[in-house]
Specification:
This protein starts with a helix and ends with a strand. Strands 1-6-2-3-4-5 form a 6-stranded antiparallel sheet. By secondary structure, the protein is an alpha+beta fold. The protein folds into 2 domains: 152 residues, Helix Hairpins (Orthogonal Bundle); 151 residues, endopeptidase domain like (from Nostoc punctiforme) (endopeptidase fold (from Nostoc punctiforme), Alpha-Beta Complex).
C-alpha cells in the first residue's frame, strides 16, 4: 500500500521513475515544439536577403524584351513631347517677334497723335469749324474746309490704327499665354515619359545584370535565333497579293532612287554605334533618330518619331517597297527600320544593343512608308 501511495505521490509530484519519465517527455515535447516553431520562423530570418530563384533564360528573355518594348513606346512619347515642346518654343518666339513689331508701330502712332495734339494746341483754342466761319475770304473758307476734312480723316484714321494695333497686341499676349500653357503641358508629358523610360530600362538592366557573362551571350544568341525564325516565317508567308516575298524582294532591289541610296548608305555606315533613347546622332541613335538622320543625308526632312513617320509619310504596299523605304513595326508604331534590300533592314534595336542589320520580317510589321 505504501508503495502504491508512494507511487501515487510520485505520479502526482513527479519525484519517482514514472513521474520523472513524464517530465522528461513533457520537456522533450516542449523542446520539439520550440524546434518546430524555430523551423517555421528561422527561414524568414535566414533569407532576409534571399537570392532570386533561378529562372530560365527564356523567361528572362521575354521579360527583358517586354520591358525594352515598353521603354521604346515611352521613348516615342518622349520624342513626340520633345518635338512639340520645340514647336511651341518656336511659336512663342514668333509671337514675341510679332508683338515687338506691333509695339513699335504703336509707339509711332502715339508719337503721331502727340504731334497732332500739339499742333492743334499751338493753333489756338477755337475748334477748326469755328475758325472757318470767321474767315473773311470764301476761297480761304473752302480751302480751310477741305484741309479740315483731311485733318479729321487723318485723326480718325490714326485712332483706328491705334485701336487695331492695340487689339493685335492683346491677341499676341493671349496667344503667348496659351502657348506657354501648352508648352508647360508638353514639358510635364516629357518628364513623365522620361521617368517611365528610366524605370523600365533600370528594371531590364537589373534583370540582365543577374546573368553571368555566358548567359548574357546566350541571351543575345536567343534574340538572334528568334529574329531569324520570325524572318523565315515572314519569307514563307507570301504577300496579300499572293506574290512570294522572295520574288518581291528580288524585284525591288533595283528601284531605289538616288535619294534612297544616299539614305541607305548613311544608315549602313552607322552600324556598330550604340542605341541610346532620344538620341539622333552623330555617335548614338534611337530607332527613329537613325531614320531621321539617314533621310536628312538623302536630302529629305521627315518627322522625328516613328509614330509621326507612320502617320504623315506616304504609305506603300510591302510588294512595292524599295531600298530607303521605312518599315514601321508593332501596333503602336513604336519601332522603325530602313529597308536596304534583299529582305533586310538597318535599325537601332534597343538599349544595350548597337545599330545593326536584321531581317525585315524579324518583328511584327505594321506597314511601310516612303519618305521620297
Amino acid at each position: 500500500m505504501r508503495r502504491n501511495g508512494q507511487g501515487g505521490r510520485d505520479g502526482r509530484n513527479g519525484y519517482g521513475g514514472r513521474g520523472g519519465g513524464g517530465r522528461l517527455i513533457a520537456s522533450t515535447a516542449l523542446i520539439c515544439v520550440t524546434a518546430v516553431a524555430g523551423a517555421v520562423v528561422l527561414p524568414s530570418t535566414a533569407y532576409a536577403d534571399p537570392q532570386p530563384p533561378r529562372r530560365s533564360l527564356e523567361d528572362v528573355h521575354k521579360e527583358v524584351e517586354t520591358l525594352y518594348r515598353q521603354a521604346e513606346s515611352a521613348t516615342d512619347a518622349y520624342n513626340a513631347a520633345n518635338e512639340e515642346q520645340r514647336l511651341q518654343e518656336k511659336s512663342i518666339a514668333e509671337i514675341a517677334r510679332q508683338a515687338a513689331a506691333a509695339q513699335e508701330r504703336m509707339n509711332r502712332l502715339k508719337d503721331q497723335a502727340g504731334a497732332l495734339a500739339r499742333a492743334q494746341y499751338r493753333e489756338g483754342t477755337l475748334p477748326p469749324q469755328a475758325r472757318l466761319l470767321l474767315t473773311a475770304s470764301p476761297r480761304n473758307f473752302l480751302d480751310g474746309l477741305a484741309l479740315t476734312h483731311k485733318g479729321e480723316a487723318a485723326t480718325q484714321g490714326l485712332i483706328a490704327q491705334v485701336a487695331t494695333t492695340q487689339k493685335a497686341l492683346d491677341g499676341y499676349a493671349k496667344a503667348a499665354g496659351e502657348r506657354w500653357k501648352t508648352l508647360d503641358g508638353e514639358r510635364k508629358k516629357k518628364e513623365t515619359a522620361k521617368k517611365e523610360i528610366e524605370d523600365k530600362l533600370a528594371a531590364a538592366e537589373q534583370l540582365e545584370s543577374r546573368l553571368e557573362e555566358k548567359e548574357k551571350e546566350r541571351l543575345r544568341q536567343l534574340e538572334e535565333d528568334r529574329a531569324r525564325q520570325e524572318q523565315q516565317k515572314w519569307l514563307a508567308s507570301g504577300t496579300a497579293q499572293g506574290v512570294p516575298v522572295e520574288q518581291v524582294l528580288k524585284d525591288s532591289g533595283a528601284t531605289a532612287t538616288d535619294a534612297g541610296k544616299r539614305a541607305v548608305s548613311f544608315a549602313a555606315a552607322q552600324m556598330g554605334k550604340d542605341y541610346v533613347w532620344g538620341a539622333e546622332g552623330p555617335d548614338t541613335f534611337d530607332c527613329s533618330g537613325l531614320t531621321l538622320r539617314a533621310w536628312e543625308a538623302g536630302g529629305r526632312a521627315i518627322p522625328r518619331t516613328s509614330q509621326e513617320q507612320w502617320r504623315l509619310l506616304p504609305k506603300v504596299d510591302v510588294k512595292d517597297m524599295r531600298p530607303g523605304d521605312l518599315i514601321v513595326y508593332y501596333a503602336d508604331a513604336s519601332h522603325v527600320g530602313m529597308y536596304v534590300g534583299d529582305g533586310r533592314i538597318v535599325h537601332a534595336p534597343r538599349p544595350g544593343r548597337q545599330v545593326t542589320m536584321a531581317g525585315a520580317g524579324s518583328m511584327p510589321i505594321l506597314g511601310v512608308v516612303r519618305p521620297g
